[in-house]
Predict the 3D structure of the following.
Amino acid sequence: MLDAVVFYTLAALILGLGILVITARSAVHSVLFLVMNFLLIAALYVTLNAEFLAVIQIMVYAGGIVVLYLFVVMLVNLKRDPEQHVDSRRLGRVGIALALVVLAELVAIAYAASTRAGGATVSGSAKSFPPGIQGGNTEELGWVLYTDYLIPFELASVLLLVAMVGAIVLAKRSL
Amino acid sequence: MVGVIGVLVRRNIIIIFMSIELILNAVNINLVALAHQFGNLSGQVFVVFIIAVAAAEAAVGLGILLAFYRNKETVNIDEMTIMRW
């Protein structure tokens, strides 16, 4: 029940943020919505027992790719922002709505914590982990990655090297 | 779905790149969910590869975009017709 609530909340937030990404008027706002989107997707990975992928998602997407996007947006889009007038009342309403969402989330967490503290003991909550992933799934993923998928892994590394060289060459000033 | 709409509707190429990232993330979510459902780790391995390819794609695409912007001073894809014969 709690899993379903968490999943539907995350899914709704991810969808809403995706829509905001493609409808935001300025590109910087789009990038910031994209960061939130990636972080929520990482949270979704955690609920799906893919902790390693969640960490990778945060580091590569939210840390690397989004910073790249921000650099490009700020290099490219500085001069002309078409509709720049900011409706402060609208922003205030959005802020109040977000605050209410956070409040509802906190209340839900407190309620769930109180019911769980009343219902289950410590051993019960510790036993809720599936037996296979006691040490996280990083180790198993590493095994699969370096045995069954060794050659695609090496190919991916070569691809990254080529992409790095290509990006440097393309972005060089005197092409 | 949202990403596809973004690719089709917007005319700012940076937004289109972000939409492509959204599409790749949707694929990743599906792969992770199915890997969780079937208890198989291959899906997560593929997600690792997709993230690597997405990083490479973003780097090269944004490099191309920077080179283009330096020449043409625009990010509107309707004006990107320099390869038209």
